[in-house]
From TrEMBL:
Keyword presence, Ribosomal protein: no
UniProt-listed Pfam families: Abhydrolase_1 (PF00561)
Domain AB hydrolase-1 residue range list: 45-156
PANTHER family: MONOACYLGLYCEROL LIPASE, MONOACYLGLYCEROL LIPASE ABHD6
One record GO biological process: acylglycerol catabolic process
Species of origin: Larkinella rosea
Protein name: Alpha/beta hydrolase
A GO molecular function held by the record: monoacylglycerol lipase activity
Amino acid sequence: MKTALLVCLLFISLPVFCQEKLVDVNGHQFHVYVKGFENRKPNDPVLIFENGLGMGLGNWNTVIDELAKTTPVFAYDRAGVEKSEKVYQTPTVQVVAENLKAILKTLKISPPYILVGHSMGGIYTRGFAGFYPDDMAGLVFIDPADFTETKDDWNAIFRRIGVPEKKIDEMLYDRLYKTVPVDSARFGPSSELRYLTALRRTDFAEITRLPVPNVPIYFFIGGKFEVPADRRSSDYNHDAFFEVRTNVNIERWKKFIYLSSKGGALIYLSNSGHYLHRDDADFVIGTLKMMLKRSE
């Protein structure tokens, strides 16, 4: 708290914005990072970053400061993650969207927004866009948890690589229906994982019923298979699974882009893994800057 306060004092010329601080929203403290608002003009979009599961806002340090040189940026830790206060509440897409909206309102950060979501953050990005479509200027998904996936889609991948039906049923049960105890010490990350499992059980029903805003939509996809040899499954060919699943995801995400008349892009980076914004930061920065240029 003292560090955050010191940073705010260094930016005393900006009464609302400082680079890093804690913000009280509905009685809970959220850790936020804001930068680049000094020269924001009316209707200039703000880049809003949603972290991966259990990840803190520092995960964006490869891209966020460079982007802040030309556009305002905002990042934060969701409840119970890193420096944000723990809140014993299921982090549904609605809860997270309402929290983010309240934080932005408290900081007087007005729309339009371009949301950038990595991994689990892609699910929360999709949720916010569905609840507040009029606030949106663009959507960017960086190797997101696949909110377009169904159980049938998942099973079909294993059929294509020759896994027997009995084994498919067993693996699906383990993935979706095995009881996972609540981890009160790490409630933020563990509750996000439990919620992701619940979403998968329903084929992401909470999300698919939400509207898709008519804005440009970008997907970044990592093509590098990163699972270490000692962690690969003994039940199926993990390399083949990764290849088939990636191709299947690409086809579904192409269809998602076409839900908007504003177009977009699907970008496959063959030498990048799940953390594309760290593996190829310059490319991600350049693409986002191009997206911002086109939105002018």
